[in-house]
Amino acid sequence: MKRLVVLGAGESGVGTAILGKKEGFEVFVSDKGTIADTYKDVLINFEIEWEEQQHSENKILNADVVMKSPGIPDGVPLIQKLHEKGVEVISEIEFASRYTDAQMIGITGSNGKTTTTMLTHHVLKHGGLTINMGGNIGDSFAKQVAEMNTPYYVLEISSFQLDGIINFAPHIAILTNITPDHLDRYDNKFENYIASKFKIAMNQTEEDYFIYDADDEVITTYLEQHPVRSKLLPFSLTRKVENGAYLENENINILIDNNKVIMPTSDLALKGNHNVKNAMAAATVAQLLKIRKTTIRECLENFHGVEHRLENVLKINNVQYINDSKATNVNATFYALDAMKSSTIWIVGGVDKGNDYSELYPLVNEKVKAIICLGVDNSKIINAFGNCVDNITETQSMKEAVNLAYKIAERNDNVLLSPACASFDLFKNYEERGRQFKEAVREL
User: Which pathway or pathways does this protein act in (predicted)?
Assistant: First the structure.
């Protein structure tokens, strides 16, 4: 019997353990932290051996295959030892894809991937396909393959998950954009991170499709130097394309083999140029999979977005409070500030991942009247924006930050939580950070 060791007992780890058990592996789950009770109950129910708060090497190094959680860096000694022994170390995406014949749509990018994944799922499901959504979002992909395998999957995939693939090949791959993010995991080399994102197309053939932002110079330059085998379907806001999506007279045009869908951008439920691009990517997939044009249009008109992503919370005294906790990097915050139409009080900060804030200067100068720092160490933010904004204050809790914003805000202002950083210093994750923001706003 082959031995599967799962490192990390979160959603992807426990899902992989369930699938491994079903496929006849001897399974062992090991987590260096504590395992949540809900996941423990599942492991006990499936009679899967597990341990927490340690990694017992004698039970790990004898594995035939290891699935590691995306949170564990490749450089840690345990992973190095496994590599030295020639043990295959893979991600959940790779493991699960070996046990399904489904057509897979894989979506990656520094920003926009959650919205694009949910929007694509929304259109295809309403178009009549039996489709599940997984990866970096919702239920574990592996668990779904084990329990309710469907003919189609749309998967949101992070660079960390792509680092652990060997044969995974989505029929349709989407790359939304590439901006510097997570460089702490890539030896602070942007080119390593770019190569990681492009692994989504690594195993594609001429029968597959690669949808990408043709306005993103990082992507187009890399493609010129490292061509992919799949059929290219670019999308662009600035120029016409022969096959793919483009903007003309405020209309989105989706064109595949002379088959065309046209939709006015004014009808999109989600506002902002970045959402025009997300809609283009999702609609291109729908057009490829022969979803009816009316269905595509209706779905783009009625999809209202993702929690914690430019989410309007409440209007109080004519001040709009906006939760963009999912903005965990500078580029995501750029989109948020760019979408602000009036004077903004900006709540920012957390765990800095090697951020370069300079691209935000023009937007901050134009739109931000006060900055509220919310992090354990805010020195980098204060140094970056000290000359742009007179009013910068530091806070240590969400409640304090929101109360301060309430005092500063005047009629027609926005209060925007868009941290540009990870959340792990004061919060469990960006969802908890966003929920605390919403609670604090509702208590005003």
Answer: Cell wall biogenesis; peptidoglycan biosynthesis
Bridge partners, residue 172, by sequence = 105, 209
**Any long-range contacts for 86-91 (C-beta under 8 Å, 24+ apart)?**
87/61, 87/63, 88/64, 88/166, 89/164, 90/65, 90/66, 90/164, 90/165, 90/166, 91/12, 91/67, 91/160, 91/161, 91/162, 91/163, 91/164, 91/165
Residue 113 annotated as part of some ligand binding site: yes
* H helix runs in 149-205, sequence order: 159-163, 190-198
Q: Is 114 annotated as a binding residue?
A: yes
Name the pLDDT band for 102 (thresholds 50, 70, 90). very high
**Mean pLDDT (the chain, rounded):** 93
Read off φ and ψ for residue 402, nearest 5 degrees.
-70, -40
Q: What domains lie within the chain, and their CATH numbers?
A: 3-90 (3.40.50.720), 94-302 (3.40.1190.10), 311-442 (3.90.190.20)
Q: Is 197 marked as a binding-site residue?
A: no
Q: Is 110 annotated as a binding residue?
A: yes
407 is in an annotated binding site: no
* 112 known ligand binder: yes
Q: Binding site annotation covers 333?
A: no
Residues 278-294: tens digit of each pLDDT: 999 999 999 999 999 99
